[in-house]
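Review form for a predicted model. The reviewer records the input and the model, then writes brief findings.
Reviewer: anonymous (R2)
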Amino acid sequence: MATTSDIRNGLCIRYNHDIYKIIEFLHVKPGKGPAFVRTKLRSVTSGKVLDNTFSAGHKIEEVRVETHTFQFLYSEGDTFHFMNTEDYNQITLQRSALDAPDLLKEGEVVTILINTEDGGSPLSVEMPASVVLEVTHTEPGVKGNTATNATKPATVETGAIVNVPLFINEGDKIKIETEKGTYKERVKE
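Model under review:
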């Protein structure tokens, strides 16, 4: 058993008869009243995000997980196929287990959390902090429209749509922050 002082991003816990991964947390010590921890939890089975507050010292049940490096092979509908880079075993996961499935390119290396308590079932997929993708379609920018931080939608090679600055053109490679799905910078070859 762990307590609220052990809460950190990426920790998997058992809560309300389900397994949740902590994606955000904040320790709050108000001037009046007891301290508490405000958390944002994502269910690893359904993908639903839940806001929850734990009082300080609250006991939480930690789930023991292992992390393994997998390479994304391909997708069929809502089924995604991955290969373990160490022993070449392949697994399939549903779209709901992935944090940002629209930003996943074939050959991308990801980290998969595996539950060691129930015989090794995969829990969730952790994407790299950012990915580099090529813009396949975007409208040309309008000259003189740069007084404000104007953006335009751009479709990248995986099919995801990302808002980018007006100077981005088709064929440019851009770095995208996977956590928020936002444009970060243009990448020079």
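Findings: The longest strand covers residues 65-76.
Further findings: The radius of gyration is 20 Å.
Recommendation: see findings above.
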